[in-house]
Predict the structure.
Amino acid sequence: MSTLPFALANIRFAWLVNFPYTPRMAAPKYTAAQIQVLEGLEPVRKRPGMYIGSTDVRGLHHLVWEIVDNAIDEAMAGHANRVIVTLQDDGSVRVEDNGRGIPVDKHPVTKRPALETVLTTLHAGGKFGGDASGYKVSGGLHGVGSSVVNALSIWMKAEVHKDGDIYTQEYVRGKPKADMKKAGKTTKNGTIISFTPDDEIFDTLTFSLDTILTRLRQQAYLTRGITISVIDARKKRPAEDEKYPRLYRFHFQEGISAYVKHLNESSEAIGNPIWFEKDTDDGQVEVAMQYTQSFQENVVSFANNIHTTEGGHHLTGFKAALTRTINNYARSFQLLKEKEENLTADDVREGLTAVISVRLKDPQFEGQTKGKLGNAEMKTAVETVVNEKLGQYLEEHPGEAKEMVAKCLLAARARMAARAARDSVIRKGALEGMTLPG
Ligand code: TTJ
């Protein structure tokens, strides 16, 4: 049981967490929490690729994402609004949040401080505390890997500021150097995790500021109101990073609306970004969209802040609702005549930039690269929300609505003209083919 593949290990974990609520087998001998903490970190060092994908530069950055995800989860739960990521000169990375602080009280099973349990046992991370933890949703594959990062670090330090006290503990390759200790008084709350990746594990130890900025900027858009700071404190930086300033601060009060504006920076926009969100029984749905005069479609989707590069049911629901809503509007204002065909899904997406972000309890990531959201209920959820909210927006903003429909009609006309031209070429070709040589 100690060398399960990366994905499988996580599926098993999710199942264990659900166990007390959805019993599908014989009565459990242990509760979820008890089984969860039985595994040490040896398998992680034996087969690191199974836990972080690879030990190349991608795997190296995965360590940062695993730790940062925990801090962002705390922000998404409404308990933090600031995350600071520092690339330190000694090769370590430091991640700080202003959340509640990882619990430090005695864990009932390990009889060790919860902090130590979280960081030294497999699967005892982000979902620590189960449903009582206050996390509405979590990335699924994300947020449970802080102990994996510890196992793959030659050094890690945890510093928790909680209820007036500072608690610290250090680790070497996942093993505590000493017991957790109190290290003075504090007036703030939060968690600071610093770690140095292990050169025995990774091919390279050089972080790319560019990679980190891109990812954290995206996370900041997706978590409206959070402030993510990035500090590059390395004296000697890789050549490709030297063009960047050393200090960044990402804060987008308008969240994914600002993301859409950013994506459309170099295009001629039609109207303002349209933004709406809704909490449904199946999860939260948030959409931002804006047409441009370009012919490019740029629709990106996320589930629990994870970019779904292969799309999935949330994207399908969006496309269906978009086509239906735009057609409904165009018909009801006679922008589309009775005898005219409906606009196609392609017509209504030409020139469209959109960000679809859903958050759900139990995301299923499928497909070749696990980049496709497999939860079928998210099609209906997104479709219903977009039908309602986009329809309402169009009614309330007739000027913008007519410009948007005009852009879609242009795409439809171009499509029909292209088809007519092609048909005519084929017909002509056929006629020519019939004329006999000589
Ligand atoms: C867990 O449930 C009780 C209240 O605190 C919750 C918690 O663990 N919050 C939390 C974890 N906030 N921040 C973290 C965290 C931050 C970093 C940078 C790294 C890690 C592993 C966790």
